[in-house]
Amino acid sequence: MSNPARPRTVATTGPIGTAAVLDDRRIAAAALASLDGMYPRTLRRLWETWNDPLDVTAAIMSGRAASVLAGGRRDHERLIRGWRSTLDLAVAEARLRARNTHVYVAGTDEFPFESELEQGPVVLFGEGARADALHRPRVGIVGTRAATPHGIDDARELGAALASAGVTVVSGLAIGIDAAAHHGALEASGTAIGVLGTGLDVVYPRRHGRLHQQVREHGLLISEYRLGTGPHPARFPLRNRIIAALSDILVVVEATQTGGALITAGDAARYGRAVCAYPGSRRNPSARGTNELLREGTHIVVDPDDVLLLLGITSGSRRFPGGPDAEPVTPEERAVLRALGGEPATVDEITARTGLAPGPAAVATAALVRSGRIRRAHGLLWPT
Amino acid sequence: MLATVASSTLLGVDGHRVDVEVHVSGGLPGYTVVGLPDAAGRESRERVRAALLSSGMAWPLKRITVNLSPATVRKSGAGLELAIALGLLVSESELPEDCVAGVGVLGELGLDGTIRPVPGTLILADALFRDGVETVIVPPVNAHEAALVRGLVVRSAPDIASLRACLKGEEPWPDLDPPAPPLVSLDAEPMDLAEVRGLTTARLALEISAAGGHHLLLTGPPGCGKTMLARRLQTILPPLDPDEALEVTRIASVCDGEPPHELASARPFRAPHHTSTTPALVGGGAGRPRPGEVSRAHRGVLFLDELGEFPPIALNALRQPLEEGAVRIARQGASLTFPASVLLIACTNPCPCGRVAVDCRCSEAQKARYARRLSAPLLDRFDLRQRITGPAASDRAGEDSATVAARVAEAVARQRHRFRASPWRWNREIPAGMMEHYAAMSPDGLDAWMLVVEDGMLTGRGAGRVRRVARTVADLANSPVVEGEHIILAASLRQDVS
């Protein structure tokens, strides 16, 4: 790549999946999307004039493209000059073959969504063992990175429920809700699509190296950026519009009032996708965004089946009955669960509400943690 | 003519007897000090000469050689000057030889002949006493301090002229000055645990910490009461026993500041600022190695507020002293040991913004960077780790310090009885090999223990610490064996801070 500052997060991965179909249009589209300074918006602008990658290529080589760019890019002449000297279909083809990268071109049958979406992408790169993930019903699961343990549980449960019903789970491989949704889908041996805000060979965030690899091996990674593109704050909101576009239904599990998940929900609404949200406690700042969505009339999800029903799929029986198997054993344990009342609380609050001495309270809490009824996180106790 | 006067010098926080030999002979007038004096010792010539001259005595125009024996021990400070001066007077026959026989002499001289205080007089006098010296002559300011050594006869005179008169028997020894009234410290604002509202679990952790000497880490958002609670630890600690009081006073005697007039009555509470350097914290430093904060807190509390802001190097240097209860400092020619048996209590924020759980708006990278400041081995030293969340409306005032201190004192008394035939004092110090002996568990306790270990609630090293804390919980509950409830309570008080 010509990108001088390669990010530290490049994953070294070889070709994967069934051989990608490559024809001249796909190769031309990939070559265009890999040009220096070719932003998604720029490419879309050229596309709207010539409507075909081969024609766009010709327009660049002949210099006609300059007039189209003149409105939006002040440096258009320099750009075109640079593109004419670097546009090389043979190099683009070799690069695609080396990693077996799929190219999805707007206007063709295999492009996963409508080509005419407002500011939608026109070229997408894809890598992964399950290119067929695009042919199934697709549900996007998004949410805040500052997820509570409850939010993580909900996203994981929903991801697993959808995946085992044959639905592809779409998310963004981010920390928090995104990762939990992917994990849920993978644990249920389902398919997942991870939409990246970086090149397909870049792992971000770094700690998700393993998840990145798993989605690649059991699903599909999608990006509109050329290989080697590093993380940049501006690219993640743009990535969100692809998640929205890819999703037949978008579910927001937990969202803060200012987070990127609300941007995704807005994109999905603009694109005419159904949006659903989980309700949360009014005391939970990580649920303020979702509660706001619900107030505005978004579909409410209180059970994974609600999403399946919206897709027109019934799960037959409830495979995810909430609630643990056995009843609490001791009166102290019952008292602690009652004192929690479904919401997180500190140990001090528990002892104050139950009136238990510290010793018995600790014994009851430890037993509840052991049986999986409550969990410790962030210095609080969370009922599951 | 030769004269020998006994004195002593400081090596760390130990005294070392030094015999000051003064030899005056004919020859070219001159003054030489041999025997590893430091710069202050070499300067003694000017002070001794001026002091003698201004006190109406003669400076012999002869060849004077002063030998500080043993020659291999490095001598520090000016505390040997009075001994040199007396040695000169004896060798010039200004004083009879027998009036300094068996007498230890400590003191620095002013140019006008006054006898000035010497740091560490308690330790120096004690070293002389242990070496068979029964009488010491010390500076008036240090007289009460030296008198803390039981059995030692302490003499003192304000200047060298009156000292000579007393030694010759021309004047009676002056009475010791009454001790100066203790300074009122600004730190000594009255505090009581009753002022802390809520924080039930953290208060419990504080009580267990005081009762078993367990290191305590409080994590929580700014303003949640961590520091307020931590400062009140000193109000519930058990009183010093006489041996401990002597140890505390000895260290206070070496350190700069007002010399102690009586045995320490309260456990020290040291709260160094987070900009403190490593030598300031653990001891050492250029020139005479001095005890650091961790030694000045010996038998008391070392309080590190904003633990995450301390330089990691300084914190890691604290690990070994915390484990061994002593700081070892190797110097060319000498290896020093400073006692440092402290109860460490520390406060820190969970992340740079310090807000609770879901309100936190720090990036993952920021949190990771902040967490890295506290190394896992250091966190492991904390037997008790409490996460404090914000105050709640339902918070009520808790028990007062006297009530808690009474329970702590009882638990401590049980430990003292248990450890009566061993070198340990606190449950914190029970060695891994003696756990079965000192922290025996009931069958119920063993079950709980297995559960706690299997649950992965702790690491292997953490497991031993939980058991020691459980022993303290049992002591507070007056239980001869450790029950399951004690184990589980102890484990739940050692939370992950992240």
Structure description:
The complex is a heterodimer of chains A (384) and B (498). By secondary structure, chain A is α/β, with parallel strands linked by helices. Helices cover 43% and strands 11% of the residues of chain A. Chain B is an alpha/beta fold. Chain B has helices at 39-42, 44-54, 81-91, 121-130, 143-146, 160-168, 200-212, 226-231, 242-254, 278-282, 293-296, 312-324, 364-372, 376-380, 401-418, 435-438, 443-454, 460-476, 484-492, and strands at 2-11, 14-25, 30-34, 63-69, 103-105, 108-109, 115-116, 135-138, 153-156, 216-219, 269-270, 283-284, 290-291, 301-304, 326-331, 334-339, 343-348, 384-387. A five-stranded parallel beta sheet of chain B has the order 11-14-17-10-18. A four-stranded mixed beta sheet of chain B has the order 1-2-4-3. In chain B, strands 5-8-9 form a three-stranded parallel beta sheet, with helices on one face. Chain B is elongated, with a radius of gyration of 27 Å. Chain B starts with a strand and ends in a 6-residue tail after the last helix. The model of chain B has no long low-confidence stretch (mean pLDDT 85). Classes of the chains: A alpha/beta (384), B alpha/beta (498). At the A-B interface, helix 15 and helix 16 of A face helix 7, helix 17 and helix 19 of B.
Low-confidence stretches of chain B: none
Number of β-strand runs of chain A: 11
Mean pLDDT of chain A: 86
In whole angstroms, the N-to-C terminal distance of chain A is 48 Å
Largest interface: A-B, 30 and 38 residues
Largest sheet of chain B: 5 strands, parallel
Low-confidence sequence ranges of chain A? 1-8, 317-324
Radius of gyration of chain A: 24 Å
Q: How does the helix and strand content of chain A classify structurally?
A: alpha/beta
Q: How many DSSP helices of chain A?
A: 16
Count of alpha and pi helical runs of chain B:
19
Q: Spell the H/E element sequence of chain A.
A: HHHHHHEEEHEHEHEHEHEHEHHHHEE
Placed side by side, the strands forming the largest sheet of chain A appear as: 1-2-6-5-4-3-7-8-9
The radius of gyration of chain B is: 27 Å
Portion in beta strands of chain A? 5-15%
Strand content of chain B: 15-25%
| Mean pLDDT across residues of chain B | 85
